[in-house]
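Recall from the previous chapter that SMILES is a line notation for molecules. Here it describes zinc ion.
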Amino acid sequence: MNPPRIGHGFDLHRLEAGRRLIVGGVHIEHDRGCVAHSDGDVVYHAVVDAVLGALGQDDIGQLFPDNDAKWKDADSRVFVEEAAWRMKAAGYAIGNLDVTVILQRPKLSPHKAAVRANLARLLGCEISQVNVKGKTHEKVDAIGEGNAIACHVVVLLVRTASQ
Ligand SMILES: [Zn+2]
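With both inputs in hand, we obtain:
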């Protein structure tokens, strides 16, 4: 009757010197960071689009336009909170979430646990329902040359018992 719903999200930001690198709510020390209207958190942005995609509702650019001064330098946590609220309002909860971050350097591995914890808290699920993988781009193209960061997210939403 109410099958689970799957969603995919993708995001990419350019990296430039003199900016902060925020990945999944974690500030990672690096010689460059994201060029973006908000804080440029590729993980949070891709998660929002994956959840909205599963719900069949718009996308992050429609909900939070990057020409709206309200979202300048915004903490992308508020975007995830909005997506989580919409998920609950529609009668769904996280089944599981699989995140792949593509970043040439620095290494993501020391930060993966913190990113998983942030996502579990914001989405109202267990850490075991959230996976975060990091990979390089084999030094190829803009990501591999250290000039961009990208993220893919797949999410499965399940009906909550109360609905
Ligand atoms: Zn983004």
